[in-house]
Inverse folding.
């Protein structure tokens, strides 16, 4: 073994000792259950190890071309890139995950010249998409990127995706090699090594789609024939006709704002999602206007009521009260927690003939209490009502295979990673390419912008490009 490999092995064992590498059952960013989890965030508490990692990187990159600058992928790789920069005297730039809303609005901080050649530094690569997000912002600022140095390649498609996008990945360690090192050092036994090996075999994921999955392979037009629910068929048709997968979350509190938003975003959306009980001046007359706008701009009205009671109560909530939801919203959401009574209650209510339900399996917010068994039970319930279910609200590409069912994914923002009340955001590309969204829900990113129409166009276009990329990669 070379001295470099010996140092690498000792470093791998140290990572295990500080719990940066763990074995058990962990959920990855895209919802896969993995037997091995690597979380390098803890390394900042071990300056000696951070120093060793930087030394390993510097030694490795000696064989490579020289670089003008380095940039760590936020956030975990930032301290790693900083130490590499300081020890090797290469200037560093930093990518902001969100542009400042004051001052210069720069996404790349630090000094650089157009055409500077940048080395990307990353801790762990799974799909490679985080590196690509950083590369996109660097390139948009005129910086050249062709190489990424990473500590660990999880061998799950990242190298291929990066290479298809013009980035050569250089990994100090592969997951297989890491397991070998840890076994030799008696940190793990043969059965753990075997588990990881099987996991890698079973999750050899297509980098763009992350799984062989019919729904994700087919175009919306092809999927139209599989849809059993009439609103799903109409939704797919609207999506194809208008080339949009954007659902605007109209979380505004006056009828005037709501109608204005429908008018402004209407040409660019497939779904207009309301929370009717937040509207302060609700009067049934205003629904006439909303329906007229929906017809004119060809979108579907969707009340995000999240029913969660016994069937009889849901039936009353759905079709009675001043809101009479069943008379104007073709789509509603429901929790599965109360079982089939909710769906029976909706199915048997008076109101519009064509109706569909999105069942909520997973939430976008941090700390949600839904676990895998809840998700499984929700999907099982949905399968029992193919004529009523339009889709599933979730954050995971692996839940839905049926091409006739729509994945609706909230928590989408181009400039923010979350709010102060546990909402979590992902970029449009991430929700489509990594999380498997068919329709993406965008709320405050549009409603709070100075120009909701222009913002809706922006989201519509990025989402549609990501969908086209997804089906083109099949
Ligand atoms: O898991 C969920 C389910 C529903 N939502 C709803 O989506 C929008 C998101 O609004 P943003 O302003 O984009 O955060 C909102 O109406 C929620 O009720 C969700 O966010 N997460």
């Amino acid at each position: 073994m070379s001295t470099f490999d010996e140092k690498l092995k000792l470093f791998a064992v140290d990572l295990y000792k500080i719990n940066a590498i763990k074995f058990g059952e962990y959920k990855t960013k895209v919802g896969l259950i993995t037997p091995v989890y690597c979380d390098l965030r803890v390394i900042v508490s071990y300056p000696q190890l951070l120093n060793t990692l930087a030394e390993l990187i510097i030694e490795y990159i000696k064989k490579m071309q020289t670089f003008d600058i380095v940039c760590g992928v936020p956030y975990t790789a930032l301290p790693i890139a900083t130490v590499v920069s300081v020890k090797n005297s290469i200037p560093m730039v930093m990518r902001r995950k969100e542009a400042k809303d004051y001052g210069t609005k720069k996404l790349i901080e630090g000094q650089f010249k157009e055409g500077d050649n940048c080395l990307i530094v990353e801790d762990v690569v799974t799909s490679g998409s985080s590196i690509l997000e950083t590369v996109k912002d660097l390139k948009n600022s005129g910086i050249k990127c062709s190489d990424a140095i990473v500590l660990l390649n999880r061998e799950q498609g990242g190298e291929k995706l990066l290479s298809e996008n013009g980035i050569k990945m250089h990994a100090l360690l592969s997951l297989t090699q890491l397991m070998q090192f840890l076994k030799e050092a008696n940190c793990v036994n043969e059965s753990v090594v075997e588990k990881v090996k099987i996991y890698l075999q079973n999750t050899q994921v297509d980098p763009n789609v992350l799984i062989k999955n019919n729904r994700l392979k087919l175009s919306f037009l092809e999927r139209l024939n599989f849809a059993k629910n009439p609103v799903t068929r109409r939704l797919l048709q609207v999506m194809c006709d208008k080339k949009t997968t954007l659902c605007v979350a109209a979380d505004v509190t006056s009828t005037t704002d709501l109608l204005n938003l429908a008018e402004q975003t209407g040409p660019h959306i497939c779904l207009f999602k309301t929370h009717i009980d937040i509207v302060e001046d609700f009067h049934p007359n205003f629904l006439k206007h909303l329906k007229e706008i929906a017809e004119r701009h060809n979108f579907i009205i969707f009340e995000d009521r999240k029913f969660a009671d016994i069937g009889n109560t849901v039936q009353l909530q759905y079709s009675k009260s001043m809101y009479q939801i069943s008379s104007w919203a073709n789509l509603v959401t429901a929790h599965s927690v109360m079982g089939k009574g909710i769906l029976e209650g909706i199915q048997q209510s008076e109101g519009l003939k064509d109706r569909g339900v999105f069942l909520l399996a997973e939430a976008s917010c941090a700390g949600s209490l839904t676990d895998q068994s809840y998700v499984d039970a929700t999907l099982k319930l949905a399968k029992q009502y193919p004529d009523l279910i339009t889709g599933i609200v979730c954050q995971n590409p692996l839940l839905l295979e049926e091409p006739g069912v729509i994945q609706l994914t909230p928590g989408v923002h181009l400039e923010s990673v979350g709010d102060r009340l546990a909402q979590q955001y992902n970029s449009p590309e991430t929700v489509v390419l990594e999380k498997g969204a068919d329709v993406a829900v965008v709320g405050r990113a549009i409603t709070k912008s100075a120009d909701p129409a222009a913002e809706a166009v922006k989201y519509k276009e990025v989402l549609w490009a990501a969908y086209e990329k997804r089906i083109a990669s099949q």
Notes: The chain is about 40% helix and 20% strand. The longest strand covers residues 144-153.
